Amino acid sequence: MLKVKNVGKTYANDFKALSDINLEVPDGEFLAVMGPSGSGKSTLINILGLLDNDYTGDYFLKNENYKNKDDATLSGVRGDKIGFVFQNFKLLSSYTVYENIEIPLIYSKSKTITDRKSVIDEVIEQVGLQGKENNLPSELSGGQQQRVAIARAIVNNPNLIIADEPTGALDSKTSLEIMNIFKHLNETFNTTIIMVTHDQEVADFAMRTVHIRDGRLYENEKSVVSD
What we know:
The chain has helices at 41-48, 71-81, 97-108, 113-126, 142-154, 172-189, 200-203, 221-226, and strands at 2-10, 16-25, 30-34, 56-61, 64-65, 82-86, 160-164, 192-196, 208-213, 216-218. By secondary structure, the protein is of the alpha/beta class. It has a single domain (24-35, 79-226), classed as 3-Layer(aba) Sandwich (Rossmann fold). Strand 9 and strand 10 (216-218) form a beta hairpin. Helix 5 (142-154) runs parallel beside helix 6. The chain is globular. The model is unreliable at 222-227 (pLDDT under 50).
C-alpha cells in the first residue's frame, strides 16, 4: 500500500503547490487523479513517484516511511518498484525499441543478458510490438511509442506504475488501445496504477478517481465544485 500523510509542497517563491494531502492507494488499485492545469497534479505525481523529496509530511510504501531516505535508496526504489509512463514518451531517439525497453534492466543489474532477452520479449508481446524490436522511435506511430514506454515501465515487474497524461498526445482510438493495456496490467498482474489525466473517458477506466484543485485533494467532484 502507498500512503501519504499531511503532505505539503511550497516552492522558493512561497507558492504553495500542495496543502495537507492525505491519500491511500491499496495494492492493486487503479487510481485516476484529475484536475485543471496548475492544480498541483504534476507536483503530486513527482512526490508519489519519489522524484521529489522536498516536501512536508510523510510518504509510506509497504508501511515503510521514505520521507527521509537518502537519494541512493530512493533511486533504487524507483528502479525496482516504480515504473513511469509520460505523455511525451521520453524514449531515447538513437536507441531501438528493444534497447529502450532494456534500460531499466541495465540499471538494476538484476538480470543477465540472457534473462533480459526473455523478459523483454515477454513485455514486447504484452504490449503488441512484435516485429518492431529493431525500429527506432522515429519509425513508430505515437501509439507505438507509448507502447514502448509502457513496456519499459513494466519490464522490471514494478509494484506501482505512475502514468502522467499517458494518452494526452494520442488520438481517441489509440488512447483506447493504450488504456486497455493499462487495464489488462491492472486486472491480470494486480499492478497498482496511479494515472493523471484531464480526460473523463480515460479516468473512467480507473477504479477510483480523486480530484485536485488549488493544491488540495478531494475524493469527489462535488467537493471540488463547492470549495
